[in-house]
């Protein structure tokens, strides 16, 4: 089968698992709040449960080395994303949504790590490394899709339960289309359990990725709610989330066009982190202009930053790529988990997200500053980046 077809299937898998399975909560947030199912503090805890599940799935993925383990987690994650999204149709209240979001967090992490490990070697072998990088535009287009569906639901006056059902049916259709074409692990080449490389270099990058997860996740989680509050629930508020997804996909495209160079990767990464910091601070303005800037400046570097982190990990620790990916994804998940918890505390004690946004933007500035101290590069790795 053509590698291009398998890469397209990988793209759609991430579009479904991440865009729908993981990030569908964001456009649903205004509905759940307006229906009285949860308040803003509970919303932060539900988001934290989703990211806790993502952390659990990322850590578990580090131990998937055999053909059966990899294939099982990939298919299990895809099916769980579909089934748990469909089950959300019957969810009502805090605990049911919390448990379902935890499950989709685990499932989406399984899909992400397995697709990363399978699609990138496939792209390299096919001589199309840039197509391998573009696989990671899938989550951005998935976010665009969930945002447009939320906009249509709002215009039609539908409730959150109906939108969950629509998301689930769309995810099921996408999964059934790609199942025969998903990349398959090599039966004869179990994943290495060798160390990931220089522990200091990966730990340094892990701290940067943790701070990035903390910084981006608050606007990414509450963007729709902030827009809904600004526009008093009008349909224009539903445009912000799909625009965020479109900007994220375009950011991946732009970064994939750069010529990989170990001497410049960290500067690109620094720029994306500080760009996001400006976007987070712009959200503090509390008006439409601030939210537009937040969408552009947080959206464009969103997935591109993840690409650059993984590219940097290949440069500083070229051996044990799957283990490096798992470790970095776990650090990223811890940062994401901290963000919604911080948002809940911020809302509980101050009545808003302003303190949390301030700390998030400061974390992104610090993450960029950590790159001023370069890690030693072992190999000039020309392979495409993966998330």
From TrEMBL:
Domain of life: Bacteria
InterPro entries linked to this entry: MFS_4, MFS_trans_sf
Keyword entries, A-Z: Membrane, Transmembrane, Transmembrane helix
TM helices/strands, residue ranges: 7-25, 40-62, 74-92, 98-119, 131-152, 164-182, 202-219, 239-255, 352-372
Record's protein name: MFS transporter
Source lineage: Bacteria, Pseudomonadati, Pseudomonadota, Gammaproteobacteria, Pseudomonadales
């Amino acid at each position: 089968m053509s590698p291009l077809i398998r890469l397209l299937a990988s793209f759609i898998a991430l579009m479904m698992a991440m865009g729908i399975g993981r990030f569908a909560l964001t456009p649903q947030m205004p509905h759940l709040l307006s229906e009285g199912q949860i308040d803003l503090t509970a919303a932060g805890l539900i988001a934290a449960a989703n990211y806790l599940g993502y952390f659990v799935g990322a850590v578990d993925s580090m131990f998937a080395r055999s053909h059966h383990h990899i294939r099982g987690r990939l298919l299990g994650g895809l099916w769980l994303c579909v089934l748990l999204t469909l089950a959300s149709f019957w969810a009502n209240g805090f605990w049911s949504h919390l448990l379902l979001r935890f499950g989709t967090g685990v499932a989406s992490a399984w899909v992400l790590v397995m697709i990363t490990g399978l699609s990138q070697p496939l792209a390299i072998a096919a001589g199309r490394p840039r197509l391998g990088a573009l696989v990671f535009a899938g989550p951005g287009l998935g976010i665009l899709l969930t945002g447009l569906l939320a906009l249509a639901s709002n215009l039609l006056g539908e409730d959150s339960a109906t939108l969950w059902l629509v998301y689930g049916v769309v995810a099921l259709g996408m999964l059934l289309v790609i199942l025969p074409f998903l990349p398959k692990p090599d039966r004869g080449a179990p994943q290495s359990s060798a160390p990931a490389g220089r522990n200091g270099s990966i730990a340094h990058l892990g701290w940067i990725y943790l701070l990035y997860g903390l910084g981006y996740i608050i606007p990414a989680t509450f963007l729709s709610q902030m827009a809904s509050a600004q526009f008093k629930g009008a349909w224009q508020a539903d445009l912000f989330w799909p625009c965020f997804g479109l900007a994220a996909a375009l950011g991946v495209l732009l970064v994939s066009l750069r010529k990989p160079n170990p001497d410049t990767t960290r500067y690109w990464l620094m720029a994306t982190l500080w760009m996001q910091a400006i976007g987070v601070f712009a959200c503090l303005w509390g008006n439409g202009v601030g939210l537009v800037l937040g969408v552009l400046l947080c959206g464009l570097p969103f997935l591109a930053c993840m690409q650059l982190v993984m590219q940097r990990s290949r440069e500083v620790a070229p051996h044990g790529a799957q283990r490096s990916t798992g470790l970095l994804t776990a650090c990223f998940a811890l940062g994401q988990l901290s963000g919604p918890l911080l948002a809940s505390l911020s809302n509980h004690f101050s009545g808003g997200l302003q303190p949390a946004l301030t700390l998030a933007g400061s974390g992104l500035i610090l993450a960029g500053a950590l790159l001023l101290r370069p890690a030693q590069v072992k190999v000039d790795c020309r392979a495409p980046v993966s998330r």
